[in-house]
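Work through this protein:
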Amino acid sequence: MKWVIFTFCLLLAVPVQAHQEKSLSPGNIRIDQRLNEQVPGDLVFRDETGRLIQLGDYFGSKPLILVLSYYRCSLLCPTVLEGLISSLRVLSLNVGEHFSVITVSFDPKDTPEIAATKKEEYLRRYARSGAAEGWHFLTGEEASIERLTQVVGFHYAYDAKRDEYAHASGIILLTPQGRIARYFFGVEFAPRDLRLGLVEASANKIGSLVDQVMLLCYHYDPTTGKYSATVLSLVRLGGILTVLALGTFMFVMWRRDRNLSSVSYPLLVDDSLQRAKDEEPPIKDR
């Protein structure tokens, strides 16, 4: 009987080992772009205080930056968060005021206590007032984690030998309604790209006129996860600037002619009348 049980356990172990090797292969450690996909708002997590929340609680009026990491990570995850903070420091847009950041751990063993420690650390590095209300560090059960990572295309794997996760690096921009707007890959994020992405995700509700002009020149390239200039965009911008310049010139000239006609013409009339009066011969008394 013992040999039967032992053999049965071996048969069960083979598929598990094969699945583990497959999940750790480089082709399965990646981020697939799922642009315009809706992130489920009913997924339940815990915030850094231990309070149960739904992701939809953070949807509303502001765009969001979603960061998937795990808090025990000692190398890649801290590098991604540090790269994000470096870009955020350059922006005039503020966390909590113009947009929110949601950091979600994909390790079900992470706890709210660890999340609270991480939040304190990164808020101290960001060093802007009001950010505590807009930057959230979440933990959750495996079911919620799996659903979220599947929807956004984030593929990772657990390495039991090292007790760590193999995963790709990047951040995801969401619209205020929770739809996926942009992906930025790597550990460094160009402030210009991040700003333009946030402006677009907000449907131009944040940012400035300069940002909207920049978006005429630069377009998001899904293959690279960056904003790049296109020749057609530059031609369009050149045409718009030319029309604006001509319109401004014509308006200035029209105003100038109008001012000259309203000031000079009456003076000329008055002068001619005065000269005619002066040249008129005196009337002799009869």
